[in-house]
Amino acid sequence: MTDQRGLLRFRRACGRVRGRMRATAAATGVTLVLAAVFVLSLIPESLREGRGSPVPLIVGLVVLLALAAMAVWTRRIAPRLAPEVLADEADAAAGLGEGDVRGAFELAEPVAGRSKELVELHRVRVARILEDVPPDGLLPRSGGKWSRRLRLGLAASGMAALALAGSALVRPGPTLSAALAISAPWRTAFPSPLPPLALSVDGRVLRGEFTRVSIEALGRAAVELVSRPAGEVSVRSLVAMDSSGHAVESVGPIISPTRIWVEDEHGAPSDTLVVRPAEPLLVQDLQIHVQYPAYLGRAEETHRGQIPALVTPEGT
């Protein structure tokens, strides 16, 4: 006798229960990650993206520990859903005697002195009875319990996904920032050093004019531009940086030698530039000497002060 389809159906039923258990764990893990992103999107930007902020790292560690605990729990639960353990539930569901299904599995290994015919007869009888039971009826208690848990897990993950999708539509910037923060939570807690601040000014500046200051501040959202004319107090202004960390600002009017530098939000300064104004050109005296071509026979002329309109031939 080789009709063992009922036992195979029972093994598959046990596999489906284990699959629901693993799917429940996966849905719970997805819910945790989505919930972490949603929570991070609600906190202030300084806590989510600020350099040195430990909040994303703490949230990431909590999620990681929860996922690790879920994995350990899954490994511990899986042996309890093996066919040998669930055999008693199948006995009750199929109306078999206590230990019949378990015995059918245990008797599969040949033992000296045991009648192979009686063993096979028992296995076939159990298999045929199990085959008459509907698939969902083989494990009504375990199958129903894990089906309910799976539905709850899927519902929770679906609600978390909807909440996050709504947040992405209403507040796309913070939501994307939160997703990036949870994907690399160490980025804010242990940030890489920022490049130094740098600034430069246009060349020559005439007294009374403004000078354009070019600022390079990679990794900063804004810096404070400071200018201090000689003998005067400092003037500070907040300058927003573009996405590449660059900005151009006007300083002035430059009347006297002026020291210019920038500071980031942590007070780190750049090098200091000193802008010295140049005096405008002032013509104090003008003298024109006119020497005509020899063939004209005209004497040389000198004009000073009030210069008349001059019309001279070629060669003058």
Give me the secondary-structure topology.
Elements: H1 5-42, H2 45-49, H3 55-77, H4 83-94, H5 100-106, H6 116-131, H7 140-170, H8 172-183, H9 186-189, E1 198-201, E2 211-216, E3 222-229, E4 235-240, E5 246-251, E6 258-263, E7 273-275, E8 287-290, E9 301-304
Antiparallel strand pairs: 1-2, 2-5, 3-4, 3-6, 6-7, 8-9
Helix pairs in contact: 1-3, 1-6, 1-7, 1-8, 3-8, 4-5, 5-6, 7-8
Describe what this molecule looks like in 3D.
The chain is an alpha+beta fold and 316 residues long. Helix content is 47%, strand content 15%. The chain has 9 helices and 9 strands. It has helices at 5-42, 45-49, 55-77, 83-94, 100-106, 116-131, 140-170, 172-183, 186-189, and strands spanning 198-201, 211-216, 222-229, 235-240, 246-251, 258-263, 273-275, 287-290, 301-304. The strands form 3 sheets. Strands 4-3-6-7 form a 4-stranded antiparallel sheet, with no helix packed on it. Strands 1-2-5 form a 3-stranded antiparallel sheet, with no helix packed on it. Strand 3 (222-229) and strand 4 form a beta hairpin. Helix 3 (55-77) crosses helix 8 (172-183) and helix 5 packs across helix 6.
